[in-house]
Here is the input.
Amino acid sequence: MIRVVLPAHLRLLAHVDGEVRIEVAGAATQRSVLDALEARFPMLLGTVRDQVTGKRRPFVRFFACERDLSHESPDAPLPEAVATEAEPFLVVGAVAGG
Here is the structure.
């Protein structure tokens, strides 16, 4: 199981409160976590990743263990603390402006 924390607007869309727990088949990677998240909450399809390219949407960031994982390969293993449920995988809505 992987603990996932979503931003407020996606929690509202998915009808969940707080963090969600996702069962991931195989290794815990960004891709496997997001695949499992979208399978469990189909209303999130296209909100975190582009449905055609699978790339992270602009202004969406991924964090775990106080590290920004947004620019890492989607198939890179997540930190061990995330895979063991000690730490959550965070999906964060970024803010732009000056």
